[in-house]
Amino acid sequence: GGIIDMASSTFQGIQRVAESTEEVSSLRPPRLIREDGIIRPYDRGEADGCDLFENSHIKKLEAESFQHYCPVPGRGKAYIVVTSRRVILMKEMEILGHMITDWDYLYEDFT
User: Fold this and answer.
1) TM spans, by residue (predicted)?
2) Which domain holds residue 75?
């Protein structure tokens, strides 16, 4: 009897937790961990830029990783994004609300 009661109450507890879980959303973008794997103090600017790049609809190149970004003054929601392979000007499509590439240049195209 005791084992069955314990198993039953454990199952009921798990069921209650499973039924009462709510969708949890992040309060901030995840920390940027660079290629060297060293975990550095959280930097909101780096995290925002990496999140912008990773969650955009912009096609990533092979072995491309986020390096840096900065907003473009006077251009609304536009950002210069620097990756390991290129420089990108991203801007928000006002109607659709997602980021698009205005232009991008691979480093090998610079002469």
Assistant:
1) none
2) 29-109
